[in-house]
Amino acid sequence: MTALYWQTIGEGDRDLVLLHGWGLNAEVWGCMLERLAPHFRLHLVDLPGYGRSQGFGAIPLPQIADVLLAAAPRKAYWLGWSLGGLVAGQVALMRPERVAGVITVASSPCFTAKEQWPGINPEVLSGFQQLLSYDFHRTVERFLALQTLGTESARQDARLLKTVVLNQPIPSVDVLNGGLEMLRMVDQRQLLATLTMPVLRIYGYLDGLVPRKVATLLDELWPRSSSVVIAKAAHAPFISHPDEFASIINRFAEA
Known about the structure:
alpha/beta; globular; 7 strands; seven-stranded mixed sheet
């Protein structure tokens, strides 16, 4: 059976869809609920194949966007963390009339390092893909450790992320491999420059997966978008700096 996990909570008059990153699920937003629910109707979704959205195989990015749009409100803000940022961007490209605004968090339109573009070494992503086939837990633990590295609360943040993963059904190797392949291959840099709705990009100054230089490069490439870099945050700024993060989201939607 193929079923998408989708939960709606909150008292606000604006819809905000929250998309998690690779290997995780909607429970990762737990620390944000009390801070955002008074201002938004929050839509918590496990991406196809992740967490409680079982029955999906590794499906391409446009198909993921289609699955989400079928369940989404008529018009919403779409917030995507890391891999979720690629999904939010794809939704905006395919159905711009359904998107009030896009917020990407510790995300990049091109995660892989290329000439004059900072990112993850392709060999690192290939190494994760090879490791996945015989040691799921070690692969996820290594990836989660990278996400919190450098922050004052790194150990406790990594433990929280690990708990989020293990407390829900674990994605299949195929689904996880498909997500890593998206991080390795997708390049939305030119496509997303055409978006006309408000776009906000949030980064962590200490992020080892999405270097802060990406923010500066996209300020030039996407002049209609805006960016915020959170000092002392890494790849999960909403976990390490929840109050500051919530304030940024609320200000953006109110503006």
